[in-house]
Write a structure and sequence with these properties.
CATH topology: Cytochrome p450
Radius of gyration: 23 Å
CATH superfamily: Cytochrome P450
Largest sheet: 5 strands, mixed
Order of helices and strands: HHHEEHEHHHHEHHHHHHHHEEEEHHEEEE
Distance between the termini: 30 Å
Number of domains: 1
CATH architecture: Orthogonal Bundle
Number of strands: 12
Bound molecules: protoporphyrin IX containing FE
Strand content: 5-15%
Shape: globular
Length: 474
C-alpha cells in the first residue's frame, strides 16, 4: 500500500494532558469483572497510550481480545472489538446508551441537530428529516453532483499537480450547500467555508476549563471565528425566512425540512432554530466525510493499477461520452466495490463513542451506568477473522461468498444513529468518481508522504498531492 503509514496517530496529544488531570483524581472501582479484562492500571503508560487512541485500542485487542476495559480519566470505559458486541451497543441496546461525552464540544456550533441531540428530541428530529433523504428526492440531486464535478474537472490541465484533499473538500462543500440550500447559496459558499474552518479550529483546540477561558477572550482570532459563525447564521436564517414567505416549495433539503410535520407526534414542524441546526449539521456531516472518502479512494486507485484499469473500463462502458446520472448508479458495480473497499481500509469515521445510561450486560460482563463505550471501524474493518490479508486493498474480496457478521463493516454506524446521509454519500461518491475518472487518471506525487490524521474524520495528515493525467478530452 505505497507509503501509507499503517499506524495512524491522533494528533491531539493534548488530550493526554486532560486525561492526566483526570487520572490524578482516579479512584479505583471494584467491578464484577475478571482481572484479565483490565489493563494493569499503570496510569503513565495509559496516558501515553491515550495520545494515540487507535494504537492504544489496538494494544487492548492484542492484550485482552474482543472485549476490554480501561479507565479514561475517571470514566470506566469498555472497548468492543467483536461485531456482535458492536451490534449490541449500536443497535440491540441502543436505548440504553447516549453519545459519548465528546459530542458536547460540537454543540456550540451544531446546536441541537441530529448529530448532537439525544432521546425523544433526537427521535422527533430524525422522523422529520428522514423523508428528505429518501431515494426519490435524493436522485434529483444527481445533476448538482455531476455539474460540480465537471467544473472541478475542467479546471485541471494534463500534468497539473492537484491538492486532491483540498479539491475534494471544496467540491463536496459546494455540492452539499447547493443540494441542502439551493443554488442561491453558490455565491456565498465562501461564508460557509469560513464558518466551517472556524468550527474545525475551535474543535481542534483542546477543551479544558482553562483553554475554554482562554478561548472566550476577545482575541482577534476569536472575533474572526465568532463573526464567521454569525454570518453563516444570518445567511441561513435569511434563507429560512424567504422560504417561509414563499408559498412555492423548492426541492432542496431546507425546503423539505421546512415542510416536514411530525405526524407521529404533535403534528407540528421545526422551528427556525431547529432548521438552522439541522442545516449546519448536514453541511458539516455531509461534506468533509465524503471529501475524505473520495481522497482516500483516489489514493488507493493510484497504488493499484490493475484496479484502476478495471475502474476506467467500467466507466468507458457504462457512461461513455455523456455525463453520468443517477440511472447509472446501479450499473457502476465495480466502482461501488472500490468505494466500499476504500471505506473498509480507511473508514472516514474511525471510532464511535457512547455512554451507558443504565447498567447493561455486554459480552457477559456487567457494565455500570455512566461507563464509556468505544467501537472502532478502523480496527474491526481490519480483523483477519473477517478479512483475509486485511491491510490489502482488494475490491474483489466483496465478490467472494464469505459470511461475515453484520457489524464487521460499519462505515456509516448503525441503529438509531445510523448516518442519515448514507444514500446521498454513495450517490455523490460514485457520480464524482465516474465524472472525474472518465477524464483523469491520478498519480501520487512522488514526494507525497501519506499518513492518516484522525481528528473528527480521517484525513490525509500531510495532504494528498496528485498528478493529473488526461485519459480523454471529455
Ligand atoms: C462517506 C461519507 C459519510 C460517512 C462515512 C458518514 C459516517 C457517519 C457515521 C459513522 C455516523 C454515525 C455517528 C454515530 O453513530 O455517532 C453518521 C451520522 C450522521 N451523518 Fe454521516 N457520513 C457520511 C456522509 C454523510 C452525508 C452526505 C450526510 C448528509 C446529510 C451525513 C449526515 C449525517 C447525520 C445528520 C448524522 C447523524 C444521524 C443521527 O444521529 O441521527 N453524513 N455519519
Amino acid at each position: 500500500m505505497g507509503n501509507l503509514c499503517q499506524g495512524p496517530s491522533n494528533d491531539n496529544c493534548l488530550l493526554g494532558l486532560r486525561v492526566l488531570a483526570q487520572v490524578m483524581a482516579f479512584s479505583h472501582e471494584v467491578l464484577p469483572l475478571t482481572p484479565e479484562l483490565f489493563g494493569n492500571g499503570n496510569r503513565i503508560k495509559l496516558l501515553w497510550k491515550l495520545c494515540n487512541r487507535i494504537k492504544f485500542l489496538q494494544n487492548q485487542v492484542r492484550e485482552y481480545g474482543d472485549f476490554s476495559s480501561f479507565m479514561m480519566g475517571r470514566q470506566r470505559t469498555f472497548f468492543a472489538y467483536h461485531p456482535d458486541q458492536i451490534q449490541e451497543i449500536l443497535v440491540t441496546q441502543q436505548k440504553s446508551v447516549k453519545k459519548g461525552l465528546g459530542i458536547n464540544w460540537l454543540k456550540p456550533v451544531l446546536g441541537e441537530g441530529l448529530v448532537t441531540s439525544e432521546g425523544e428530541f433526537h427521535r422527533r428530529q430524525r422522523r422529520l428529516a428522514l423523508p428528505a433523504f429518501q431515494k426519490q428526492y435524493l436522485e434529483t440531486y444527481d445533476k448538482i453532483i455531476v455539474d460540480e464535478s465537471l467544473i472541478v474537472s475542467r479546471e485541471w490541465r494534463h500534468g497539473d499537480t492537484v491538492e486532491m484533499d483540498e479539491a475534494m473538500m471544496s467540491m463536496t462543500l459546494i455540492i452539499a450547500a447547493t443540494a441542502f440550500m439551493g443554488s442561491e447559496i453558490r455565491e456565498n459558499t465562501y461564508l460557509i467555508n469560513d464558518a466551517l474552518t472556524a468550527f474545525f479550529d475551535l474543535f481542534r483546540t483542546f477543551r479544558t476549563p482553562l483553554t475554554r477561558a482562554i478561548n472566550s477572550l476577545p482575541t482577534k482570532r476569536r472575533r474572526a471565528h465568532t463573526s464567521a459563525l454569525r454570518q453563516l447564521d444570518e445567511l441561513i436564517y435569511g434563507m429560512i425566512k424567504r422560504r417561509r414567505d414563499e408559498p412555492r416549495a423548492k426541492s432542496d433539503l431546507l425546503s423539505m425540512l421546512l415542510l416536514a410535520q411530525d405526524a407521529e407526534g404533535d403534528g407540528t414542524g421545526m422551528t427556525d432554530k431547529q432548521l438552522r441546526d439541522e442545516v449546519v449539521t448536514a453541511l458539516l456531516a455531509g461534506h468533509e466525510t465524503t471529501a475524505n472518502a473520495l481522497t482516500w479512494t483516489w489514493y488507493q486507485l493510484s497504488q493499484n493499477p490493475d484496479v484502476e484499469a478495471r475502474f476506467h473500463e467500467e466507466l468507458d462502458r457504462v457512461i461513455g461520452d455523456r455525463p453520468a446520472c443517477s440511472a447509472d448508479l446501479e450499473k457502476l458495480t465495480y466502482t461501488r466495490l472500490i468505494l466500499k473497499e476504500s471505506m473498509r481500509v480507511m473508514p472516514v469515521v474511525s471510532i464511535l463513542g457512547r455512554t451507558s445510561l443504565v447498567p447493561m450486560e455486554l459480552a457477559g460482563y456487567q457494565i455500570p451506568a455512566g461507563s464509556g463505550l468505544y467501537v472502532s471501524q478502523f480496527l474491526t474493518h481490519r480483523d483477519p477473522r473477517w478479512y483475509d490479508d486485511p491491510k490489502t486493498f482488494n475490491p474483489d474480496r466483496w465478490l467472494k461468498d464469505k459470511t461475515r457478521p453484520k457489524f464487521s463493516y460499519f462505515p456509516f454506524g448503525g441503529g438509531l444513529r445510523h448516518c442519515i446521509g448514507e444514500r446521498f454519500a454513495w450517490m455523490e461518491g460514485l457520480l464524482a468518481m465516474a465524472t472525474l475518472g472518465r477524464k483523469w487518471r491520478f498519480k501520487l506525487d512522488p514526494d507525497q508522504v501519506v499518513a492518516p490524521l484522525m481528528v473528527v474524520t480521517t484525513r490525509p495528515r500531510y495532504g494528498m498531492k496528485m498528478i493529473a493525467e488526461e485519459r480523454s478530452s471529455l
